[in-house]
Structure formats: C-alpha cells, structure tokens
Amino acid sequence: MKCSFCEQTLVCKSCNRPFQPRKPETLAGVYQPDTQVSCPECQKVLVCKMCGFIYGEDAEPKESQ
Q1: What is the pLDDT of residue 28?
Q2: What is the pLDDT of residues 14-65, one digit of tens each?
Q3: How many CA atoms lie within 13 A of 55 on its CB side?
Q4: What per-residue confidence (pLDDT) applies to 60?
Q5: Is residue 15 in a domain?
Q6: Fewer beta carbons below 10 Å: N end or C end of the chain?
Q7: Residue 62, domain member (yes or no)
Q8: Which of 11, 57, 10 is nearest to 33 (CA)?
C-alpha cells in the first residue's frame, strides 16, 4: 500500500516492514488524518519510513490559551 502523504510504498519506520493492515478498521484509519494507526507488526505508531509522516499526529499544532 502507498503512503497517503508521499505516495511511496508505506513502510514502518520502526520495524522496516511494509504496512499490511490485518483489519478493515486499520486500513480505514490510514485515510483518517485524526486517527492514530499502529503498525500491525511492531505495534508502534505508524510512521512512513520514506517521508516521516506520522499517522495519527495532528496536522496543525494546538495552541494553549
């Protein structure tokens, strides 16, 4: 599968394995920018090895007031 951000093959930065979701919910989470996705292999937050995109990180930092 391809990274939603850089469109390269989605490989987990933590374990260097291609992302292959085992559940439909995990696959759907990849396309939801506010949903944190864990790598099915190493259980860490999914980070694209190619571009560093973090699946589940807020797109814009929140400011405290």
Answers
A1: 87
A2: 999 999 998 888 888 888 877 899 999 999 999 999 999 999 865 444 444 4
A3: 29
A4: 46
A5: yes
A6: C
A7: no
A8: 57
Q: How many CB atoms lie within 10 A of CB 39?
A: 22
- Ramachandran region, residue 33 (left: φ > 0; alpha: ψ -120 to 50; beta: rest): alpha
Helix extents (H) in 1-48: 24-30
Looking at this protein, which amino acid is placed at residue 60?
Answer: E
**59 against 10, higher pLDDT:** 10
Contact 55, 49 (CB under 8 A): no
Residues 53, 57, 16, CA angle at the centre, nearest 5°?
A: 40
Q: Give a yes or no: residue 65 inside a domain.
A: no
- Total structural domains within the chain: 1
Structural domain includes residue 41: yes
Name the residue type at position 22. R
Question: Which stretches of the chain are DSSP H helices?
Answer: 24-30
Distance of CA 65 to the CA centre of its chain: 29
